[in-house]
Fold:
Amino acid sequence: MPDFAQKLVLWQRRYGRHGLPWQGTRDPYRIWLSEIMLQQTQVAAVIPYYERFLARFPDIAALAVASEDDILQLWSGLGYYARGRNLLRAARELVKAGRFPDTVEGIQALPGVGPSTAAAIAAFAFGRRAAILDGNVKRVLARCFGVEGEKAQWTLAEKLLPARGIETYTQALMDLGATVCTRAIPACGRCPVARHCVARRDGRIEELPTARKRKPLPLNRSTWLVLLHKGSVLLERRPGAGIWGGLWVFPEGPEGNVTSFCRRNFSCEIAKSRRMPLIEHSFTHFKLRIQPLRCTVRKILPRAEAPGRIWLEVEDAARAAVPAPVRKLLLGLA
Structure:
């Protein structure tokens, strides 16, 4: 395709996305933060989180002294929480190093940064001539050139890099995939390279990129114990690894005979319990069907405070570092 990069650059200057809160800066911290938040997350969802995060942590030094709870509280609802924990780890490494790396290799060495994210940060912050290959770009290359397979696409992406204007070109690729060459119903009439597009020429727009065969997501079940005592609720911290790592959630228990279970495990005497509406939540690899049980606690028996558990006022719990389904349920209790 002749002048692919030039066509995209000209198109981006006129029709691409401008004025996003992380654009118009060379600050590697702001660019790094935005690229991490944008991993598997749409721009519209990221913007409010990005602005709140920057207001609380305006630079790497401020982020490095934060607690994990501070980070996860601000991240709550954005999903993929390992990203937030990795940001904190990386910030502490960067403070020790005394500088932000200015090469793709150096940036990729940071926790939570893959090759495409590292290339985007290097291009936007330092003008490095580096190829990106996120999901949107893979789709653009598959349709425009009929090229699939990660190895072949990386080779093609590197060959297409322009000698100049790498920042605009990189943004153009992102914008084209996100706003024109979309997964469903692409706007080919607005595409700057439609004349040369293989998928359009061969009538294969719906076929490219080749859809991966997806197995039905397995269904996991869980019972949440919503233990309420004089306006407070019991929360447990999830282990650092796994789903909702480091976040506060309701303790899990059996669906039946909660009285003896709660006395044995939480030193609570239950006055009554009732089922609440089911909650379904999807993760990348499975679906979770949750049965919450609202349990009124008559009294808390004398016991040593258990590590990793905390009683909080319901309103305070809703503002804590909790995942979105927990927050939604808590807000319904307040």
